Protein backbone atom coordinates (compact mmCIF):
# COMPACT_ATOMS: atom_id res chain seq x y z
CA UNK A 1 0.00 0.00 0.00
CA UNK A 2 1.35 3.43 -0.94
CA UNK A 3 1.40 6.29 1.55
CA UNK A 4 0.77 9.29 -0.73
CA UNK A 5 0.00 11.81 2.06
CA UNK A 6 3.42 11.12 3.63
CA UNK A 7 5.19 11.74 0.32
CA UNK A 8 3.15 14.91 -0.21
CA UNK A 9 4.09 16.13 3.27
CA UNK A 10 7.78 15.41 2.71
CA UNK A 11 7.67 17.14 -0.68
CA UNK A 12 5.89 20.17 0.84
CA UNK A 13 8.52 20.44 3.58
CA UNK A 14 11.28 20.15 0.98
CA UNK A 15 9.74 23.01 -1.01
CA UNK A 16 9.21 25.13 2.08
CA UNK A 17 12.76 24.76 3.37
CA UNK A 18 14.18 24.99 -0.12
CA UNK A 19 12.46 28.33 -0.68
CA UNK A 20 13.48 29.65 2.73
CA UNK A 21 17.12 28.86 2.05
CA UNK A 22 17.12 30.60 -1.34
CA UNK A 23 17.32 34.08 0.16
CA UNK A 24 20.31 35.66 -1.48
CA UNK A 25 23.59 35.96 0.37
CA UNK A 26 23.26 39.67 -0.38
CA UNK A 27 19.99 39.93 1.58
CA UNK A 28 21.21 37.66 4.39
CA UNK A 29 24.39 39.73 4.86
CA UNK A 30 22.41 42.98 4.86
CA UNK A 31 19.96 41.66 7.44
CA UNK A 32 22.84 40.51 9.65
CA UNK A 33 24.36 43.98 9.51
CA UNK A 34 21.01 45.64 10.18
CA UNK A 35 20.18 43.76 13.39
CA UNK A 36 19.76 46.17 16.24
CA UNK A 37 20.17 49.27 14.10
CA UNK A 38 17.85 51.52 12.16
CA UNK A 39 19.08 52.95 8.86
CA UNK A 40 16.47 55.64 8.32
CA UNK A 41 13.52 56.88 10.27
CA UNK A 42 10.38 57.86 8.41
CA UNK A 43 7.43 59.36 10.20
CA UNK A 44 4.07 59.72 8.48
CA UNK A 45 1.19 61.64 10.00
CA UNK A 46 -2.22 61.42 8.35
CA UNK A 47 -4.98 63.84 9.31
CA UNK A 48 -8.48 63.32 7.88
CA UNK A 49 -11.00 66.14 8.05
CA UNK A 50 -14.55 65.32 6.96
CA UNK A 51 -17.32 67.77 6.09
CA UNK A 52 -20.79 67.09 4.73
CA UNK A 53 -19.71 67.81 1.14
CA UNK A 54 -16.16 66.46 0.85
CA UNK A 55 -13.28 64.81 2.67
CA UNK A 56 -9.81 66.32 2.85
CA UNK A 57 -6.74 64.19 3.43
CA UNK A 58 -3.62 65.94 4.66
CA UNK A 59 -0.40 63.89 4.76
CA UNK A 60 2.89 65.04 6.26
CA UNK A 61 6.00 62.91 5.79
CA UNK A 62 9.48 63.48 7.15
CA UNK A 63 12.46 61.31 6.39
CA UNK A 64 16.18 61.30 7.11
CA UNK A 65 17.00 59.56 3.83
CA UNK A 66 19.09 61.43 1.28
CA UNK A 67 17.41 63.16 -1.67
CA UNK A 68 17.59 61.66 -5.12
CA UNK A 69 19.04 63.53 -8.06
CA UNK A 70 19.54 62.93 -11.76
CA UNK A 71 21.83 60.02 -12.55
CA UNK A 72 25.43 60.97 -12.95
CA UNK A 73 25.22 64.39 -11.32
CA UNK A 74 28.59 64.70 -9.59
CA UNK A 75 27.70 67.88 -7.71
CA UNK A 76 25.05 66.32 -5.48
CA UNK A 77 26.30 64.50 -2.41
CA UNK A 78 24.36 61.65 -0.83
CA UNK A 79 24.65 60.11 2.61
CA UNK A 80 23.49 56.88 4.18
CA UNK A 81 24.83 53.61 5.49
CA UNK A 82 27.64 51.62 3.94
CA UNK A 83 27.53 47.85 4.35
CA UNK A 84 29.26 44.96 2.58
CA UNK A 85 28.08 41.71 1.03
CA UNK A 86 29.42 38.63 -0.75
CA UNK A 87 29.55 39.40 -4.46
CA UNK A 88 28.21 37.19 -7.25
CA UNK A 89 25.78 37.72 -10.12
CA UNK A 90 24.26 41.19 -9.77
CA UNK A 91 21.06 42.75 -11.09
CA UNK A 92 23.06 44.41 -13.89
CA UNK A 93 23.78 40.95 -15.33
CA UNK A 94 27.48 40.84 -14.43
CA UNK A 95 29.29 38.34 -12.25
CA UNK A 96 31.92 39.90 -10.01
CA UNK A 97 34.15 38.71 -7.18
CA UNK A 98 34.78 39.89 -3.62
CA UNK A 99 38.07 41.50 -4.73
CA UNK A 100 36.38 43.78 -7.32
CA UNK A 101 35.64 47.39 -6.38
CA UNK A 102 31.89 47.20 -7.03
CA UNK A 103 28.68 48.07 -5.21
CA UNK A 104 24.92 47.55 -5.00
CA UNK A 105 22.97 50.81 -5.01
CA UNK A 106 19.82 51.14 -2.91
CA UNK A 107 16.60 50.25 -4.75
CA UNK A 108 14.99 53.74 -4.64
CA UNK A 109 17.97 55.34 -6.39
CA UNK A 110 18.66 52.33 -8.63
CA UNK A 111 15.22 52.73 -10.22
CA UNK A 112 15.06 49.22 -11.75
CA UNK A 113 12.74 49.02 -14.73
CA UNK A 114 11.34 46.07 -16.65
CA UNK A 115 14.85 44.97 -17.67
CA UNK A 116 17.34 45.65 -14.85
CA UNK A 117 20.21 44.61 -17.15
CA UNK A 118 19.51 47.75 -19.22
CA UNK A 119 19.36 50.04 -16.17
CA UNK A 120 21.14 53.35 -16.86
CA UNK A 121 22.65 53.22 -13.35
CA UNK A 122 24.53 50.00 -14.19
CA UNK A 123 28.20 50.73 -14.75
CA UNK A 124 28.12 54.24 -13.25
CA UNK A 125 30.92 55.03 -10.84
CA UNK A 126 30.52 56.58 -7.42
CA UNK A 127 33.11 57.88 -4.98
CA UNK A 128 32.33 56.83 -1.41
CA UNK A 129 33.88 58.54 1.62
CA UNK A 130 33.92 57.35 5.22
CA UNK A 131 33.54 60.64 7.15
CA UNK A 132 34.87 59.00 10.35
CA UNK A 133 38.37 58.54 8.88
CA UNK A 134 38.32 60.50 5.60
CA UNK A 135 39.14 57.41 3.48
CA UNK A 136 37.56 57.20 0.02
CA UNK A 137 37.06 54.53 -2.64
CA UNK A 138 35.60 54.62 -6.16
CA UNK A 139 33.31 51.74 -7.14
CA UNK A 140 31.21 50.66 -10.12
CA UNK A 141 27.48 50.01 -9.63
CA UNK A 142 26.71 46.39 -10.62
CA UNK A 143 23.77 45.41 -8.40
CA UNK A 144 20.69 46.56 -6.49
CA UNK A 145 20.33 46.44 -2.71
CA UNK A 146 16.56 45.94 -2.15
CA UNK A 147 16.57 46.42 1.65
CA UNK A 148 18.92 49.44 1.59
CA UNK A 149 17.40 52.85 2.39
CA UNK A 150 17.79 55.74 -0.04
CA UNK A 151 21.37 57.04 0.15
CA UNK A 152 22.79 53.71 1.33
CA UNK A 153 25.23 51.53 -0.62
CA UNK A 154 26.21 47.87 -0.19
CA UNK A 155 29.90 47.37 -1.07
CA UNK A 156 32.10 44.47 -2.08
CA UNK A 157 34.41 43.30 0.72
CA UNK A 158 37.40 44.84 -1.10
CA UNK A 159 35.72 48.24 -1.43
CA UNK A 160 34.42 48.27 2.15
CA UNK A 161 37.85 47.17 3.41
CA UNK A 162 39.44 50.16 1.65
CA UNK A 163 37.49 52.61 3.84
CA UNK A 164 36.79 50.64 7.05
CA UNK A 165 37.46 47.34 8.77
CA UNK A 166 35.08 44.58 7.64
CA UNK A 167 34.26 43.83 11.28
CA UNK A 168 32.46 47.20 11.49
CA UNK A 169 29.75 45.78 9.20
CA UNK A 170 27.94 49.12 8.86
CA UNK A 171 29.33 52.65 8.68
CA UNK A 172 28.05 56.10 7.80
CA UNK A 173 29.07 57.17 4.28
CA UNK A 174 28.89 60.14 1.92
CA UNK A 175 29.07 59.63 -1.83
CA UNK A 176 28.86 61.34 -5.23
CA UNK A 177 28.63 60.18 -8.83
CA UNK A 178 31.95 60.60 -10.67
How would you state the average pLDDT, rounded? 75
Spatial strand sequence of the major β-sheet: 3-7-4-6-5-8
Straight-line N-to-C gap? 69 Å
- The low-confidence runs, each spanning 5 or more residues with pLDDT under 50, are 13-32, 34-47, 59-72
CATH class of the domain at 66-178: Mainly Beta
Count, helices: 4
Q: Biggest sheet, in brief?
A: 6 strands, mixed, barrel
Q: What letter string, H or E per element, gives the SSE order? A: HHEEEEHEEEHE
Question: What is the level-2 CATH architecture name of the domain at 66-178?
Answer: Beta Barrel
- CATH 4th-level superfamily of the domain at 66-178: RlpA-like domain
Query: Radius of gyration, Cα only, in angstroms?
Result: 21 Å
Helix coverage percent of residues? 10-25%
Find the structural class using helix and strand composition: alpha+beta
Which outline best applies? globular
CATH fold type of the domain at 66-178: Barwin-like endoglucanases
Strand content: 25-35%
- How many strand segments? 8
Amino acid sequence: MRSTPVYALIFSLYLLFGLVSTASVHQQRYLQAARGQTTARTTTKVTITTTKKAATVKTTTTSKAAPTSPAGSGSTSFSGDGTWFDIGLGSCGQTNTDTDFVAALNAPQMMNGANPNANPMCGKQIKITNPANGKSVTVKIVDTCPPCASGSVDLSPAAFGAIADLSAGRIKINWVFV
